[in-house]
């Protein structure tokens, strides 16, 4: 088995995010921050490395979104490709290229790849029965079919899954299936597709993965072993759809490449767009390929894509696939359909210039071996207790005291005490720990050790107390401050892969540039007399009210989801028309409003009904402030028998609409009408 040092160059790919919505913290934690950390580390080591990314822009969910919004699939992907690309750029995900699968280069590359396998006889052709919409004259993908779930009997289940009970389905399992396209009942019709015979590649995969890559992460190796042990089956590489890369053979009208086959080829086409020397990254034995993905993509990147590459014959295979597990949010699975997520573009608005705070939190709590949970309280604690109190505090002290005592000039280092030597000897030890962790894709451990160097510097200053010693031993303080600055310079390199924006600020303050990983552990970065710039605040405390605002936003999402899922109450028993006409409902105007003492829900209102002015007690105080509803026109039942409520005689009832979440709204005319107008 080759080691990392045996390769001349490294190609790093990241899972292509699906361009039917923005990206969230789960994407960042699972794929893009780890990949960026690793690539920045290799760049600091002056290695030849490329970071390849792009948007996955084909598939049924995109066509459904386009249909629902009355726009084209291209409109959908153009919008979200832009949002996703912008979010990545602003979070410092340093792609060498960020492409898309609707590019001309990709269409050509994917078609050529398919044709090569087709000409080599690597596919098998099979006929299968599939639902067909006779009105729309098209075959229906599973997501284009809805019906009643055979398990929980919920309506609106899709042909591949019931979202009410979570059961995976076949479209033919649905009760009373309907086409999403036309609403008609589909029929079963025979269609032909091309399949990649994964079973043919099973012996190779057993040897390559199970025998040859036992060093892979246990979650990756275990999932691969499970699939291989169960026995692999042929997998369709085409489907009946009008959105995607057309199948480039005769007799394939109305068929496109299946998105799982099309998308990973996007890594190749993106590299082609980046450099004319793309083949040396994809086809040279001295090149190393790494796939950074989430656990839902393990099978595609470890079994399916390698089988495609092996069948083609001229490409290298991945050396490692350091896939992560999933990140949850406040104890619940992140869900785009339920809006249960922290969206990156929204975070950038709510936490301006705090990209590194999120990068740090997601790395320190990365779901490397099991699903992990992001909470806003943990985010606040890591910022306040670690970034502010340890890293920020140490760097600020070192720079501030240098300006205070020496006008920004680095002082000379004098004779070292045993404690000085002990502190300095710890620096290369921590550097080695960070390096070993990064080499083994243990990013949580790596960032912890990087911050430990700042912790060491913080402790050194706290123990030596130069602010006190300056009065009695100024020469000793020069040595202390020189050591503190040397530690600061080392910290700026160690944190750069994790916190690139912060590292840039630190090196600007230190008046340093061009630092590399080889500089880590040096104790003479800053010569005597070197001028450091004025201090700049690296981090600031995040207050409770800011965090509460985020928690409130999530709570509102819960309420909205409950309301959306709650069905309307069933209709009451029928009444006769004569019963209805007995009710005298008029339009009135609220003249006065005040809270009823010692109650939470009641307001006492004076209402002009057009007949008279009367008092009404209404249970709406939790939804409306008295001062906000004066002058509001309402519907009032004026012939309701009076009754006493909390000692106040209420003469009528205000009509309200209540939604599934319990929110109340006035039933009122759309525009002002004369008081006393009848509601019929």
Please give a structural write-up.
By secondary structure, this protein is an alpha+beta fold. The protein folds into four domains: 4-122 and 197-324, HUPs (Rossmann fold); 124-194, Methionyl-trna Synthetase, domain 2 (Beta Complex), CATH 2.170.220; 374-519, Isoleucyl-tRNA Synthetase, Domain 1; 577-666, OB fold (Dihydrolipoamide Acetyltransferase, E2P). 41% of the residues lie in helices and 17% in strands. The chain is built from 20 helices and 25 strands. The strands form eight sheets. The chain has a five-stranded antiparallel sheet. 40% of the residues are buried. The mean pLDDT is 93.
The secondary-structure class comes to: alpha+beta
Low-confidence stretches: none
**What is the fold named in CATH at topology level of the largest domain?**
Rossmann fold
- Percent strand equals 15-25%
Q: Assign the CATH architecture of the largest domain.
A: 3-Layer(aba) Sandwich
Give the overall form.
Answer: flat
Walk across the major sheet and give the strand order.
Answer: 19-18-17-20-23
pLDDT average, as an integer? 93
Distance between the termini: 83 Å
The count of helical stretches stands at 20
Number of strands: 25
Helix content: 40-55%
Domains, number: 4
Supply the key terms.
680 residues; alpha+beta; Rossmann fold; Methionyl-trna Synthetase, domain 2; Isoleucyl-tRNA Synthetase, Domain 1; 4 domains; 5-stranded antiparallel sheet; 4-stranded parallel sheet; 20 helices; 25 strands; flat
